[in-house]
Amino acid sequence: MDRADLLLLGTTIGYALALLHLIVSLWLGRMRFGRWPFALPLIGGLGAHTIWLVRAAMRFGHVPIISTQEVFALLAWAILVYYLFVQRKRRWTDVLGLFVLPIVLLFVLVALVSTGFKLLPQELEDLLRMPALPLHIGFMMLAYAGFLLAFLAALMYLLQERELKRKRFGFIYRYFPSLSTCETIGHRSLLFGFLMLTFGIGTGIILLRRSDPVFWRGDPIIVLALITWLFYLIVVHYRLAAGWRGRRAALLLIVGFLATAAVFTSARLFGHIL
């Protein structure tokens, strides 16, 4: 096992310990043992994760976004960074880690068992040298992270709403955020994700214009990405202008995330960077 694999292994252990502490703390009483036993392995894992990404970029000479290993490692990093940003400001998002950390841990495990290096065609090598590419990738990864947390907040909202309607006051009632809190997480994550998606598509258009003399070829992935952007534009508009809230807004966030996930998966299957 080389140093890169050791870094990913250390990342996995750190995230797993943080998740285990979170589960035990919530089971026995919210953060009964304090926050540091949760924060230290999480920050340590994030540090090893960041070092791995930097080493991968230096080793391959490009933003780590080509192989399956690179994609899942970078996406897990973006999700965790955005989660920590949200969690830093809101103490009530501890339970959100029960949803976020298993996903992050799964992505890191996929990266750990996947093959890293792959040969690239010349046209893709040229694309990877463009200065706008890191911005495009960064914006898109943060957009996915924002939409994922909006999706998870919507799920928490629906679960909490169902428990309240059935007058069940178990684990979900005790530990989940209130309905208004779930709305706040979902709304802010939606706005953040939409802003990042807009920037990501904008920088993607710049890259496409510079890499291909024929600007529009009717690429189905580009069409799907634009449709997804229009969908989120409509959701943002009606949340801000018409005040859409509650169950309907939560369902829209879930549908939007599923559409985003489908576009991301299709892009990878058809050989697109993002």
What does this structure look like?
The chain starts with a helix and ends in a 5-residue tail after the last helix. Helices cover 78% and strands 0% of the residues. The protein folds into two domains: 119 residues; 154 residues, no CATH class. The mean pLDDT is 81. Helix 2 runs antiparallel to helix 3. The protein contains ten helices and no strands. The protein has 274 residues and is mostly helical.
Can you tag this structure with a few keywords?
mainly alpha; 274 residues; 2 domains; single chain; 0% strand
Helix content: over 70%
> Low-confidence parts, pLDDT < 50 over ≥5 residues?
none
Mean pLDDT: 81
Q: What order do the helices and strands follow? A: HHHHHHHHHH
Class per helix and strand makeup: mainly alpha
What oligomeric state do the depicted chains represent?
single chain
Cα Rg: 20 Å
How many strands in all? 0
Separation of termini? 29 Å
The tally of domains stands at: 2
Strand content: under 5%
**Tally of individual helices:** 10
Apparent shape: flat
Largest sheet: none
